[in-house]
Design goal:
Elements: H1 3-27, H2 30-81, H3 87-168, H4 173-185, E1 191-195, E2 198-199, E3 204-205, H5 208-216, E4 229-231, H6 236-246
Parallel strand pairs: 1-4
Antiparallel strand pairs: 1-2, 2-3
Helix pairs in contact: 1-3, 2-3
């Protein structure tokens, strides 16, 4: 095998490793998205609970104000009741006081209902706060793990790129250009091994004479079907068969 072809095979192996690392670096941030989305959903739910609580608090304040005004009105009506001389007016005032007391009692019932709902919302907010804290802790751990993995992969990438740079220096520019041209069009695989006359890149048979020339290892050959650069490595089975035929 030509030395430049041997180096180019090594270049391809490193290129594949680099490609896998780059893919991993692209995918790693995506692993955080599910947790981030879940956290955002919890925060939105929490915001809804807090808005509901604020609305209930406003209703409670309004109801308490109305009750205070009614109490004051009832108090004044009772004071007036003591001054009334007419029996008809007295009965009318009693009815008015009873009506006001009924309205006050309804407000009091409403106030109790509001307070119960506020307690429920507070419990819901406390539970949601706990969920949010747990999710934030999980996200922080995931981010830390991702950052550590990214740092590790980038370090590996730097080493591989340095190795790749050194190997490429031993490959003629024209051959490198051909390699890059094929690699971009063949999903990152520009060089393919030939086994028993079959290109492992496209699984097609190459010409018999081409296979003979490839075994000689004197020139750079390409697959007539997929155009990948070809190489051949003698297999043990072929060596054993040759030894048996010689005996």
């Amino acid at each position: 095998m030509l030395p430049e072809l041997s180096r180019l095979i090594d270049v391809q192996e490193i290129d594949k490793e680099i490609r896998e690392i780059e893919r991993a670096l692209e995918q790693l941030p995506g692993e955080l998205k599910a947790t981030e989305a879940a956290l955002e959903e919890l925060q939105q739910e929490q915001a809804g609970h807090r808005e509901e609580l604020e609305a209930l608090q406003a209703q409670r304040r309004d109801t308490e104000t109305e009750m205070a005004e009614m109490e004051e009105s009832i108090k004044k009506s009772r004071q007036r009741l003591m001054e009334i001389k007419s029996n008809i007016e007295y009965k009318a005032m009693l009815k008015e006081i009873a009506f006001k007391e009924d309205q006050r009692d309804q407000r009091e019932t409403r106030l109790l209902e509001l307070m119960e709902r506020m307690e429920e919302e507070n419990r819901g907010i406390a539970a949601k706060d706990q969920e949010i804290q747990e999710k934030e802790a999980t996200l922080a751990q995931q981010r830390q793990a991702v950052e550590a993995e990214v740092a590790k992969l980038r370090q590996e990438l730097a080493v591989l790129e340095e190795q790749r740079k050194k190997l490429r220096k031993g490959v003629p520019p024209q051959l490198l250009k051909r390699y890059e041209f094929i690699r971009t069009r063949r999903n990152g695989t520009a060089i393919a091994r030939v086994v028993e006359g079959v290109c492992m890149g496209c699984n097609m048979n190459i010409l018999p004479q081409q296979f003979i020339d490839l075994q000689k290892g004197a020139e750079i050959l390409q697959c007539p079907h997929c155009q990948r650069i070809l190489y051949w490595v003698e297999e043990e089975s072929e060596t054993e068969a040759g030894g048996q035929r010689g005996s």
